[in-house]
Design a protein that fits this description.
CATH class of the largest domain: Mainly Beta
CATH architecture of the largest domain: Sandwich
Number of strands: 8
Number of helices: 1
Mean pLDDT: 88
CATH topology of the largest domain: Immunoglobulin-like
Strand content: over 45%
Low-confidence stretches: none
Largest sheet: 5 strands, antiparallel
Strand order of the largest sheet: 1-8-7-4-5
């Protein structure tokens, strides 16, 4: 039984390394764009000089998206996103790398609620530059 636990622990470690991109799997890149609860990243495209994110507001209230930051790139907006609605946000004048390069970065959305409260949501993006 103790050998079984050792094998299981090894598989968990290998799975964790593959998930975080330390181990490349089949030459395929993992595409990840995720937040904690309340906001969803439905899709994204990374280009050498820009990024487009398709975000959905599921916070239960209307918000105004003020700024989005991806890595060292940020863009200001003033877009109202009603509860349940989705919109595409494009960050321009960025430097992500070259086509085919794997990129990962922290994503932060700063928004204002209808009550005037300034809040933020943080997440992660990982994918290949197209």
């Amino acid at each position: 039984m103790s050998y079984g636990w050792a094998v299981l622990a090894g598989l968990v470690v290998i799975g964790g390394l593959a998930y975080f991109g330390v181990i490349k799997t089949d030459g395929q890149s993992q595409r990840i764009c995720m937040f904690s609860y309340g906001m969803a990243c439905q899709d994204f495209i990374l280009k050498p000089d820009s990024a487009s994110l398709y975000l959905t507001n599921s916070l239960g209230k209307d918000i105004t998206v003020d700024m989005i930051t991806l890595g060292k790139c940020n863009e200001t907006f003033g877009t109202t996103l009603l509860n349940g609605d989705s919109a595409r946000f494009t960050l321009n004048s960025c430097v992500f790398g070259t086509v085919g390069e794997q990129v990962s970065g922290k994503l932060e959305v700063v928004y204002t609620t209808g009550e005037g409260m300034l809040k933020y949501h943080r997440g992660d993006v990982r994918g290949k530059i197209e």
